[in-house]
Input
Amino acid sequence: MNKIKILIADDEPNQLELIRFNLTKENFDVISASDGEEALCLSEEIFPDLIILDWMMPKMSGIDVCRKLRSKSVSRDIPIIILSARGEEGDRTLGLEIGADDYVTKPFSPMELLARIKAILRRSRPSLANDYMEFEKLRIYPSTQIVKYNGEKINLGPKEFKILSLLMERPEQIFSRTQILDKVWGHGIDVEQRTIDVYIRRIRKALMIDSNESKNIIRTVRGSGYALVTSKFGFH
Amino acid sequence: MNKIKILIADDEPNQLELIRFNLTKENFDVISASDGEEALCLSEEIFPDLIILDWMMPKMSGIDVCRKLRSKSVSRDIPIIILSARGEEGDRTLGLEIGADDYVTKPFSPMELLARIKAILRRSRPSLANDYMEFEKLRIYPSTQIVKYNGEKINLGPKEFKILSLLMERPEQIFSRTQILDKVWGHGIDVEQRTIDVYIRRIRKALMIDSNESKNIIRTVRGSGYALVTSKFGFH
DNA sequence: TTTTTTTGTCATGAAACTGTAACAAATTCC
DNA sequence: GGAATTTGTTACAGTTTCATGACAAAAAAA
Output
């Protein structure tokens, strides 16, 4: 059971601790940074599921960090919430326009921040919120770890299930082996990248044999990774 | 060209008109409702891309409408923004917990609402934000590394894809072999300039064979390099 | 315990990609 | 026209990347 990783960056230790306390209580895995540069480094090193950035920080502002993250494809899709004492019109819209998903003005209640975090995660990590996810003829039930293809039940091991879930959260998007390792195994785990290939093979096999279907729903993107594809876009 | 449909429900005509005005200006297709029941009916009838609900409305509150929409699978994934004059803690979190994607307290500026709408659409409609580059009949999707010519899918290797992406970034502009080498291979790499010729050949071939089209979309500029051209400038 | 399932790695062959050389074709210049 | 230059095209070898089956260790189930 992998916890959801949230990165918080704020230069006020009290504020940081307050948020950390509340998020930890909700069973999130909290990583903290005390300035913009640290936030940026950590973001690229671990792949958090969500990032909370204070606007005003030493070395690099939250806005700049957000811009940087949005400019790179590996971090483009990570949800970002910006915190700020600046409640002015222009500031709020600026925050959202540069790619943040939400903008919360200080002071805010932990409850509200939490509610907004959950609202965003509901969208970006559908497996956490919905009973099931559906893509083409494939349906998976995160809570019970059941996979069905065309109504037929498919048998997958835990790791296989997690990988497929990850791919299903963003169909068409290419996941690199590193991304898959980070999300499924956890960051910093020592596992060969090629192991992913083998699991992909196992998933493909399970989907084919059990459902007697020869269509390949997982696309290999040479040099990049794997992605779920609709049959109409399928390569092979 | 499909416009994005947004449904607004508010019982104050002035407010409604103000929002409608601003959204129409942004080229959204705006549908309005003046009470909760109407909002619910319209939602199920026309499947908007986003719904904005005032909390306090006759017949059925925005909260109840939101609950109803979330309980049905057809409307479960439509993003919802709740507007409210009630800025209290509990209200805000209730709105979000019930399944809304954002909660905006009145009074708000049209600019901010717009920014929040866009932030949400960015997530829920990746196809709109996750854009593609288009030139003539050629379309390339950077995030998924997919190339289409005339709607048909083209298979390109990584280097070929990068070169074509580069050319697409600035149609008509001539790229020298040195420029292409620097951008695609990286600066200071030791590769023959003539190699570019071969890749151009491969790209041309892929575009021709796979789409059964003989038009040459890549122009050779003798002594300078290559460039994408519109058909009217094409030679041969 | 034994049995089964899951997990991670390896070896091997297949497939795709890369870069270059060699020659053909075309363009330019004289 | 003829020589020089530039580009087009093809083939080929080297390299990288991926698919696949096999296998042993670890974990879970019986």
User: Anything to note?
Assistant: The two ends of chain A are 34 Å apart (CA to CA). Residues 157-160, 191-192, 194-195, 198-199, 222-223 of chain A lie near DNA strand C (CB under 10 Å from a C1').
